[in-house]
Write a structure and sequence with these properties.
66% of the residues lie in helices and 0% in strands. Helix 1 crosses helix 2 and helix 2 crosses helix 3. By secondary structure, the chain is mostly helical.
């Protein structure tokens, strides 16, 4: 019975916060289709830290974690866009090592 109540409470919290957090993540993140993933990761992280329970701390915590995760994701996207692998660099000649 205790497990059922815990599960029901968790479902209620997910239902309560999922859509507002997805809308917030959608505004912050460059790859809009990843917003649901960000929210899922945030909720899983919060649950793993044993902080995913109703209380005045939960809403600001989820918002801050969503903001931080979106920022990190955007930075990773920017790095990936600007990264040039040495083997794919067109400025390097494939015969440069043979000419020396």
């Amino acid at each position: 019975m205790q497990h059922l109540q815990h599960t029901t409470c968790m479902i209620h919290l997910v239902a309560k916060y999922q859509q507002p957090l997805e809308r917030y993540a959608h505004r912050l993140i460059q790859l809009k289709h990843r917003a649901p993933d960000i929210v899922q990761w945030v909720m899983e992280e919060t649950y793993g830290e044993q902080q995913f329970f109703e209380g005045p701390h939960l809403r600001p915590l989820l918002i801050e974690k969503t903001k931080r995760m979106c920022s990190g994701f955007n930075k990773a996207i920017a790095i990936a866009k600007n990264y040039k692998h040495p083997l794919n660099d067109p400025s390097r000649s494939s015969n440069s090592s043979l000419n020396t």
